[in-house]
Specification:
With about 280 residues, the chain is α+β, with helices and mostly antiparallel strands. It is about 40% helix and about 10% strand. Strands 4-5-3-6 form a 4-stranded antiparallel sheet. Helix 7 runs antiparallel to helix 8. The longest helix is centred in the last third of the chain and has 16 residues. It is globular, with a radius of gyration of 21 Å. InterPro entries: DNA/RNA_pol_sf, GrpII_Intron_Splice-Mob/Def, Reverse_transcriptase_msDNA, RT_dom.
């Protein structure tokens, strides 16, 4: 799906192997194929619920699909979304990449900027999704069906097989702008879903405003509370040092506890830390 000509000719029902009659029927009854519940957002430091300036408690809405819709979304992910090329800086929702590979890119860098996109999935609205696929060269029918089956209540729902992939594709325009800017200033840039990380061996504080403005110029909001510029900080849950990366102290403490457990009990955190430390051996 790299040439615009092939994209224009694609027929959505044929790609997903579902008759158009069934797709239209599914659209009519789409609300019946989603579950929905709320999760209150708590502050990691205090454990108390987060609130907006007016005192309203912040909530996250989980909206997983089921039955026919879940199967269709998995089909869309496997046969369409995963075939759209993403730049190498993207580590979330990409095969063989994760929070560890994301953090590894910044090992040995003295200056690090981390920031977080606020309400990333909910901020990706249906018109943006539709226009993104039109801009990529897909025809209107294709863009319509994609948009209709990957968004709900006008936005990307959390809990679907497709939302991370769609968010990555919508963010492509900003990714490419940031990549170009960072290459010009000798800055390493990676993104793990809604976590953006920039690092360099040289102080780049003088261009931080420009970096953040590129993101905000396309309508996305940044969490200034989570925007930090310093060395020796945690990147996507990984401690990054000059010559190695490792799990944070809380994980290491739990790994030590796991070591005391009987052998037949799965030791997930131990395996996770081993996966992190393995990258250090590879590098050496």
């Amino acid at each position: 799906m790299n040439s615009s000509k092939s994209k224009i000719c694609l027929h959505f029902p044929s790609i997903v192997r579902v008759p158009e009659r069934e797709l239209k029927e599914l659209i009519v009854f789409l609300d019946n194929y989603y579950a929905e519940w709320e999760i209150i957002k708590n502050d990691k430091a205090t454990g108390l619920p987060k609130t907006y300036k007016d005192g309203t408690v912040k909530k996250r809405y989980i909206r997983p699909p089921f039955l026919k819709l879940k199967a269709l979304q998995s089909n869309i992910k496997n046969n369409i979304l995963e075939k759209i090329s993403l730049p190498s800086n993207v580590h979330g929702g990409v095969k063989k990449k994760n929070n560890i590979t994301n953090a590894k890119k910044h090992q040995g860098k003295k200056y690090v900027l981390t920031t977080d996109l606020q309400e990333f999935f909910p901020s990706v609205k249906s018109p943006i999704v539709y226009q993104t696929f039109i801009d990529l060269g897909f025809n209107k029918q294709f863009a319509f069906y994609i948009t209709r089956f990957v968004t709900w209540k006008g936005e990307l729902p959390q809990g679907t097989p497709t939302s991370t992939h769609i968010a990555n594709i919508v963010f492509l325009k900003i990714d490419n702008q940031l990549i170009t800017f960072c290459e010009q200033h000798d800055i390493t840039y990676t993104r793990f879903v809604d976590d953006l990380t920039f690092s360099s061996s040289q102080d780049f504080q003088h261009v931080i405003f420009d970096i953040l403005e590129i993101v905000k110029s396309c309508g996305f909001r940044l969490s200034m509370r989570k925007t930090k510029y310093s060395g020796n900080q945690t990147i996507t849950g990984i401690k990054v040092f000059n010559h190695k990366i490792d799990a944070p102290e809380k994980i290491i403490e739990k790994v030590e506890i796991e070591k005391q457990l009987p052998g037949e009990i799965p030791k997930y955190l131990t395996r996770y830390r081993e996966q992190i430390l393995k990258t250090n051996r590879k590098r050496s």
